[in-house]
Amino acid sequence: MFAVVQNGNIVQLIQPDIAFVIGEKQYSARFIRNATEAERKSVGVYEVIYGDQQDQRFYWVSGPSYRVNETNQTVEATFTATTKQLEDVTETPEGSTEAVTSKGLKSQWIAQVKDTAGKLLAQTDWMVIRKVERNVDIPAGTQTYRASVVAECDRLEAAIAGSASVEALIAVVSAQNWPQA
Fold first, then answer.
1. Which of 66, 75, 153, 174 could form a disulfide with 3 if both were Cys (CB 3.0 to 4.6 A apart)?
2. Cα distance between the two ends of the chain
3. What is the DSSP letter of 109?
4. Is pLDDT of 181 > 90?
5. How high is the pLDDT of residue 15?
């Protein structure tokens, strides 16, 4: 994306391949792609440089906010991140007698880990049913696999529950190590 800058202010955001007007001059849809960086800057068209965004699974992200950097002749786009609630919060709304619980990140991630484990185990559940109904042995490799899935689920649940910060939670969920079937 690009911005038209006049007198240090952003007057218009423009996309490549779309015609635009600066003052009374019409620029073709090809101008952004075909013009050199110097040609774009000479008419006040600066590239927008986007800053990093936090992971929206863990943060409320707002923005972008734009700022002209006259030194580099660019426009910097930044984002604001607010940490999402780590723990569950139970509140009673005004005028209500029933409490409402908003699930925090820990509860959401524990539910996701349990769901993943359930889906992985579901692939071999028929062998467990066959064992119960007809006493047909479950192959050793399948038993090992199922035990590994349960162990990873237990490990992740404990680590998630023990996370004292969003950063610690991110480290835990980034280190998931589910076994391969």
1. 75
2. 44
3. H
4. no
5. 93
Q: How many CB atoms lie within 10 A of CB 2?
A: 19
**Beta-ladder partners of 26:** 21
Give the global pTM: 0.81
Question: Looking at residue 83, what DSSP letter applies?
Answer: E
Q: Give the tokens for residue 60.
A: 């409320």
- Could you tell me which of 167, 165, 157 has the C-alpha nearest to residue 115? 157
- Distance CA(125)–CA(29), nearest Å, equals 58
- The single residue listed with the structure tokens 């023990």 is 162
Omega cis (within 30) before 139? no
**2-6 vs 45-50, strand pairing mode:** antiparallel
- Residue 4, Cβ neighbours under 10 Å: how many? 21
